Amino acid sequence: MRTRPAGIGNVNADWMGSLPSKLSAMPLKYLAVPGSHDSFTFWVDVHAPVGPDQKAYVKYLATMFSVLAKKVMVKWSMTQNLTFREQLDAGIRYFDLRVSSKPSEPGSDIYFIHGLFGHKVRDGLLEINSFLGRHKKEVVFLDFNHYYAMDAEHHVYLIHMLQQVFGSKLCSDCAVENITLNFLWEKKYQ
């Protein structure tokens, strides 16, 4: 099934900033925030090797039946058909992120992954940051919940990347139970 944002243009792009003051003063844990599963899997690289998130038998089958196996894998690896920007414009604010290095590739680059490798994480973060720059009252939640083929160096690289891309927009407050949109807006955290 192909989904597209409802309405004309980006009518949901500023929904947080449009909330009544009663809701913006409420702790975030009480707000329903739209999210997406395997958020940035609207594109996967059929030419890259099968990801380290897959079982050995899947990797074996992909090696034995490369073209056919990857055609099948694409169908279940791509769980989104909206781009980064389209998801943000549609109102998505919670992102389920699964990331991996490419074991055969030198360096610290990290990619979105779901069976097959997707875009570089940095590209997705830059797209989110660009959106936030245009929508000052919108806040996103990045849930990096699965890591594959990543050692300590990759994790340090990811943390530095987040700091570099988002800078002062990152919320450094650890008492998340009571954080409100008003607090985030006041501190210019997004």
TrEMBL record:
Gene name in the database record: PLCXD2_2
Domain of life: Eukaryota
Organismal lineage: Eukaryota, Metazoa, Chordata, Craniata, Vertebrata
Domain Phosphatidylinositol-specific phospholipase C X: 27-187
Gene3D superfamilies, sorted: Phosphatidylinositol (PI) phosphodiesterase
Pfam families: PI-PLC-X (PF00388)
Name the UniProt record assigns to this protein: PI-PLC X domain-containing protein 2
SUPFAM superfamilies named among the record's database cross-references: PLC-like phosphodiesterases
